[in-house]
Amino acid sequence: MQNNKLFVANFKMNKTNTDVAEYFSVFPIPDKNYKNKVVFCVPSTSLYFASAYMKGEKMSLGAENIYYGKSGAFTGEVSADMITDCGAEYVIIGHSERRGIFNETDEIVNKKVISALDAGLNVILCIGETMPEREGGQTESVLSRQVEQALQGVSDYNKIIIAYEPVWAIGTSAVANNEQIAEVIAMVKKIVDVPVLYGGSATEKNADEILSIENISGLLVGGAALDPVRFSKICQL
Ligand code: PGA
Q1: Among candidates 57, 63, 114, which has minimal Cα distance to 87?
Q2: Measured from the CA of 96, which atom of ligand 1 is nearest?
Q3: pLDDT per residue over 152-203, tens digit each?
C-alpha cells in the first residue's frame, strides 16, 4: 500500500463533458483514510464542469496547459487566472507533446511556470529526453537544461513538482526501467529538491513496481487514466 503519493491523470485531448460525467460516476471518491492524492488534468473545456466532481482534499483539478500572458489579444488561449477561476489547482507545463507538436521552447516553458506560480497554481513540470538523445548519451544534459531553464527566476519551489516523462516511453508501452528512473530522480534532486513523478506508459500492471523506486513521489498517467476503473487501480482506490 502506497502512502503520500501523487497520482496525476492527463486526459490530453480526450473526453467531452458527457464523458467526464460518466467517468466520475464510476471513479471512487477517496475517503479520509486514503493516504495518497489524485489530480485530474482535463481539457480546458471540462475544467469548470469537472470541478463539481472534486470531493474532499484528496481529489484536485488541474489543467493541461496555459498561456503565459495575463489577458489580452491572444485569440484561443487560456490564462493561469482563467483556469484557477474554473477550479484548477494544478497545471501541467512543458509536456513533450507541447514541446514537440507546438514548438514550446524552454523559454516559453519558463514563462508559463512563472505565470502559473504567480496565480498560486501548483506546477507539474514535465521533462524528458528522446530516444536519440538517450542513445547519444545526452540524457543528463537535456534533462538538467530543461529543469534549470524552466525554473529560472523561481525562488520558492514549494509548488513545483517535476514529472520525468521520457519521450520514447509516452503512449508506447515502452516503460523506462527502475534503474533509469532512479538515476533521473537522483539527478533532478541534485538540482532542485522537489517531488519527482514518473510518466510514460504507466498502467495498473506496472504501477507498483515503478512506485517501489526510492524517492519517487507518484505517477503521471495518460492512456491508462482514461478508464476510471484502470486509473482507480493505479491510485489504489
Ligand atoms: P501515457 O502518457 O501514460 O499514455 O504514456 C503519459 C503522458 O503523456 O503524460
Answers
A1: 63
A2: 8
A3: 999 999 999 999 999 999 999 888 999 999 999 999 999 999 999 999 999 9
List b or e across 66-95, with b for residues whose CB sees 16 or more CB atoms inside 10 angstroms: bbbeeeeeeeeebbbbbbbebbbbbbbbbb
Per the annotation, the verdict on 104 as an active-site residue is no
Q: Which residues line ligand 1 (CB under 6 A)?
A: 10, 165, 170-171, 199-202, 220-224
Give the CA-trace dihedral at 159, 166, 41, 6, to 10 degrees.
Answer: -60
Instruction: Report which DSSP code applies to 52.
Output: T
Angle at 206 between CA 201 and CA 209, to 5 degrees: 125
Side-chain-facing half-sphere of 223: CA atoms under 13 Å = 12
The C-alpha atoms of residue 211 and residue 157 are separated, in whole angstroms, by 23
Q: Predicted confidence band at 1 (pLDDT cuts at 50, 70, 90)? A: low
Task: Please tell me the distance between residue 11's alpha carbon and the centre of ligand 1 in angstroms.
Answer: 9
Question: Is the distance from CB of 2 to CB of 201 less than 8 angstroms?
Answer: no
Do 91 and 83 meet the contact criterion of CB atoms below 8 Å apart?
Answer: yes
Spatial contact of 175 and 202, defined as CB atoms under 8 Å apart: yes
Catalytic: 95?
A: yes
Distance of alpha carbon 186 from alpha carbon 189, whole angstroms: 5
Classify residue 57 by its DSSP letter: T
Chain-centre distance for alpha carbon 69: 21
Which residue has the least CA distance to atom 3 on ligand 1? Answer: 222
Q: 5, 217 in Cβ contact below 8 A?
A: yes
The predicted model gives 62-69 an average pLDDT of 98
